[in-house]
TrEMBL record:
Keyword field contains Hydrolase: yes
UniProt cross-references to PANTHER family, sorted A to Z: GLUTAMYL ENDOPEPTIDASE, CHLOROPLASTIC-RELATED, SERINE PEPTIDASE S9 FAMILY MEMBER
Keyword Transcription: no
InterPro entries, per the entry: AB_hydrolase_fold (IPR029058), Peptidase_S9_cat (IPR001375)
Peptidase S9 prolyl oligopeptidase catalytic domain: residues covered: 29-129
Keywords: Hydrolase
Protein name (record): Prolyl oligopeptidase family serine peptidase
Length: 148
């Protein structure tokens, strides 16, 4: 069994979203999905669909898993590394796992086992054992009120 592409898990208060590894569409400037204009013809479109440019607004923990040998021009390993750096550089919580010798899909049994291991640990830490959001907010407000 092969698992296709990069996995990125966004954990928020009400939903889990799994997306694919093209975080900065400006790195593929000559068309994307149904957009046929280049990045120079439609820069706002490319920025709007590039998660990379919203890294400073991501407040929920993110798990990024990517094959280290992904040769797909739209989802190179550089995309995952730079997205991770952007999140961490802006104070966000992220984990980057590069699966060695894996291309655009994950074929090795060990890689698929690692993927499941990472996802289960991530969900245990940030979902199953996480305090409720309202509690975190109340604690933050209370802590701020107690400071001189």
């Amino acid at each position: 069994m092969a698992i296709n592409n990069t996995v990125c898990i966004f954990i928020s208060q009400t939903k889990y979203k799994i997306t694919r590894g093209s975080y900065n569409k400006t790195l593929t400037p000559f068309g994307l999905q149904s957009e046929r204009r280049s990045e120079w013809e439609a820069p706002d479109v490319y920025r709007k669909v590039s998660t990379f440019f919203y890294a400073d607004k991501l407040k929920t923990p993110i798990l990024i898993v990517h094959g280290s040998d992904d040769a797909n021009p739209g989802t190179t390993p550089l995309q995952a590394s730079k997205f991770y750096e952007a999140i961490r550089g802006n104070g966000g919580t992220a984990r980057l796992v590069m699966l060695p010798h894996e291309p655009h899909w994950y074929a090795a049994r060990e890689s698929n086992e690692q993927l499941v291991y990472e996802m289960l640990n991530w969900f245990d830490k940030y979902v199953k054992n996480a305090p409720p959001r309202a509690q975190k907010t109340a604690q933050a407000v209370q802590g701020a009120a107690q400071q001189p």
